[in-house]
Design brief:
Blueprint: H1 2-7, E1 12-14, E2 31-33, H2 38-50, H3 52-59, H4 62-65, H5 70-74, H6 113-117, H7 121-129, H8 135-142, H9 144-147, H10 153-164, H11 209-213, H12 215-219, H13 229-235, H14 237-245, H15 269-273, H16 314-325, H17 331-365, H18 378-399, H19 403-431
Antiparallel strand pairs: 1-2
Helix pairs in contact: 2-3, 13-14, 17-18, 17-19, 18-19
Bound molecules: heme C (8 copies).
One heme C is lined by residues 113, 116, 120, 123-124, 127, 132, 186, 196, 198, 200-202, 209, 212-213, 255-256, 258, 270, 274-275, 282, 284.
């Protein structure tokens, strides 16, 4: 706040401080530069009264100190599909001096990567090719919950799409449709054709790099039984160091200057996957630096991942990740870590995944389970959990130095699941008895048409 006030202290008008809300300690003073357009001042002043929290957040942002206003991000072309028509009513108000027609501007609520690209083209270009931005297309290509309609709209909206992103649309009144908004999922389908929401990691209206460098920024989505990266991080030595020393890390280092060993002594998710360090450049494409697709049923190289083949070479990407590690470790330490990871990948693929897949295929071939719905027969669910839950935990745990996830939540559970699965399959293969069909499958019947913007029909 001090810096903001300082930057604005020449040529300013002082605003009247509105009556304080009872539970607000004291409204801060904010001086608005004369150089701003009247329309921009109207946004700020009216919203300062309407949403003091939102306003305060903006005043603390780097944007505010660089004189970037509400208009720079929210102003829309009158012909844009996402103009909020209801908002025009704000310019017919007589209860505030800022509600006058001369301040009227068409606005869009969603501020998309395309809007940010005006000033941040590199970040947006990288983001656009990432799996984050393209996740909806991947999900609609491969996921049985969506493809086969095994869950319903309420379950999707409150779960899947909150992390992966909805397809925004307006309702009849010209407001954002309740079935699609609020939403800041990583692959949100925006009405201007762009994908994603930069606020997944940089929440509005601070848009802070410090926030995105913290593991919590990622842990809001990267958690739970099927992708427990935040739990894995917490278990790792790196996480333990973060817990002990995180308070002294220099989170606010200028973008691109956050330096291993100088600004932090243990890496976070962002240090390893996104932030530039040593010879490695910052990236907004999280598939960079990866040499495996550890989340996939059969572990493959990123360029062999069919729904979205990476346009890079895994060996080059692995070297980038290693260059991050060697800011703090020697080559032997890091090379040996990857030897271990590669063995774990082979172990999972050959001992658990391939044999289980062969058994499932045999059940289909012999007609003992049906191909129509997925999850509506026991072997399908058991097989899914083997690769999607414990099989991922084992691989991710090994990749990010968490032995409890690699073994107790990982391979130990794989063995357990595999034995049950094999026993059940062998019984039915022997008897020739079909597996009972769980019908009706609870909550199934979701719309199986992919959003038009994905061009998948
Ligand atoms: C005279 C007051 C006033 C002015 C001027 C004003 N707004 Fe608003 N705006 C509001 C109010 C009140 C709401 C919330 C309405 C509600 O809660 O349903 C709102 C809502 C919004 C929303 C959210 C719309 C939605 O989908 O819910 C955005 C974004 C927004 N304003 C941005 C702006 C921008 C940008 C400007 C300047 C170009 C601006 N406003 C000018 C009063 C104003
Ligand atoms: C750097 C770009 C940027 C600036 C500057 C900016 N906004 Fe936003 N605003 C966003 C983004 C991004 C969102 C979140 C919506 C999304 O994910 O698309 C948002 C959301 C909103 C919302 C809806 C949020 C809610 O909780 O209801 C309102 C209202 C709003 N902005 C008003 C303003 C006002 C008023 C200003 C100026 C004081 C302002 N914005 C400045 C980018 C910006
Ligand atoms: C009109 C130009 C403009 C637009 C539009 C814009 N920004 Fe910025 N942004 C800037 C400038 C200028 C800075 C650098 C300010 C500084 O260095 O003090 C900045 C800085 C940032 C930072 C770094 C903040 C920090 O803590 O160092 C982030 C993150 C950011 N912007 C995100 C966004 C996002 C996300 C959007 C779209 C929702 C967006 N910006 C839209 C101009 C813009
Ligand atoms: C808590 C947030 C969250 C929820 C809820 C969620 N996901 Fe995910 N999903 C993720 C994350 C994070 C990943 C990345 C996993 C990885 O790479 O380790 C992911 C991965 C996936 C993938 C794999 C993509 C690939 O590249 O192979 C699919 C498909 C998917 N999710 C579909 C769904 C569906 C369908 C639902 C709801 C039934 C759902 N997800 C619910 C966060 C979530
Ligand atoms: C998955 C989380 C994530 C998302 C989503 C994300 N960012 Fe970032 N962003 C980061 C991290 C982490 C950094 C810090 C890099 C560093 O340490 O310097 C960063 C830094 C930035 C910076 C500072 C300059 C730089 O490149 O280091 C800008 C500007 C920025 N992001 C804009 C955006 C825009 C625009 C979008 C949407 C297209 C976006 N970010 C989406 C995590 C994210
Ligand atoms: C709003 C939810 C969300 C947030 C926040 C988020 N992610 Fe993700 N992330 C996802 C989803 C969903 C996927 C799966 C995309 C896919 O494969 O379809 C994913 C995938 C990934 C992948 C795998 C890419 C690949 O090629 O397999 C990495 C690595 C990743 N995220 C890192 C991060 C990091 C680091 C952060 C924090 C700086 C972060 N994510 C923040 C939802 C999120
Ligand atoms: C010490 C560095 C490091 C830290 C810290 C770290 N990761 Fe990783 N992460 C890795 C490595 C190494 C891999 C495996 C890379 C490969 O494929 O070669 C990986 C793999 C992943 C994947 C799997 C991508 C896939 O193949 O599906 C995701 C998702 C991911 N990390 C997210 C995160 C998140 C979220 C955090 C923080 C909670 C985090 N990582 C912390 C180094 C790190
Ligand atoms: C910012 C510095 C930093 C970076 C970057 C970093 N580490 Fe570490 N790492 C440490 C420190 C410090 C320790 C604790 C060493 C000890 O036990 O004294 C550690 C511990 C480890 C351990 C030991 C885990 C255990 O439980 O014994 C492994 C393995 C490891 N790191 C691998 C990596 C790999 C692989 C990367 C890159 C993907 C990486 N580290 C990146 C600082 C870092």
């Amino acid at each position: 706040m001090k810096r903001v006030l300082f930057l604005f202290c020449c040529g300013v008008i002082l605003l009247a401080v509105p009556a304080m809300a009872q539970n607000m300690p004291k409204m801060k003073e904010f001086r608005i530069e004369r150089g701003m357009s009247e329309q921009a001042k109207a946004c700020i002043n009216c919203h300062k009264a309407e949403n003091p929290g939102l306003f305060a957040d903006w005043t603390m942002s780097r944007h505010a100190s660089a004189n970037i206003t509400c208009l720079d991000c929210h102003q829309a072309d009158p012909a844009d599909k996402d103009v909020i028509k209801e908002h025009f009513k704000q310019y017919e108000r007589s209860d505030t001096q800022w509600g006058r027609p001369e301040y009227k501007v068409p606005i869009a609520t969603a501020v998309t990567p395309k809007d940010c690209s005006r000033c941040h083209p590199d970040e947006v270009k990288q983001y656009a090719r990432s799996k984050h931005a393209n996740t909806n297309s991947i999900v609609w290509k491969i996921d049985p919950w969506m493809r086969k309609g095994m869950n319903n709209a309420a379950e999707r909206q409150s779960g899947c799409l909150t992390c992966h992103g909805t397809a925004l649309k307006l309702d009849d009144k010209g407001n954002l449709d309740a079935a699609t908004w609020p939403n800041v999922g990583v692959g949100r389908i925006n009405m201007d054709g762009s994908f994603g929401s930069c606020t997944s990691c940089h929440t509005r209206h601070r848009f802070s790099v410090a926030e995105a460098r913290r593991p919590q920024a990622c842990g809001q989505c990267h958690l739970g039984p099927d992708h427990p990266q935040i739990e894995i991080f917490t278990e790792s030595k790196h996480g333990a160091i973060y817990d002990s020393f995180g308070e002294s890390y220099n989170w606010d280092a200028a973008p691109g200057t956050w330096t291993a060993g100088v600004d932090y002594r243990g890496p976070t998710c962002a240090s390893c996957h996104m932030s530039g360090t040593g010879p490695v450049m910052t990236t907004h494409d999280v598939t960079e630096r990866l040499s495996w697709e550890l989340q996939a049923p059969l572990t493959v190289r990123p360029q062999d991942f069919k729904p979205l083949p990476a346009q890079n070479d895994w060996k080059v990407e692995r070297d980038k990740m290693k260059a991050v590690c060697t800011q703090c470790h020697t080559n032997t330490w890091v090379d040996n870590h990857y030897v271990k990871l590669d063995k774990v990948v082979a172990n999972y693929n050959d001992i658990y995944f391939k044999p289980a897949k062969a058994m499932l295929d045999e059940l289909y071939a012999k007609g003992l389970i049906t191909k129509e719905g997925f999850f509506d027969e026991r072997p399908e669910v058991e097989f899914y959990e083997l690769w999607h839950h414990e099989g991922r935990r084992a691989r991710m745990g090994a990749a990010m130095m968490a032995p409890d996830y690699a073994w107790w939540h990982g391979f130990y559970e794989c063995k357990h699941r595999f034995n049950h699965f094999r026993e059940m399959v062998e019984e039915h293969l022997k008897s020739g008895e079909k597996f009972p069909l769980w019908q009706p499958y609870p909550g199934s019947g979701g719309d199986t048409t992919p959003p038009a913007a994905l061009n998948l029909q």
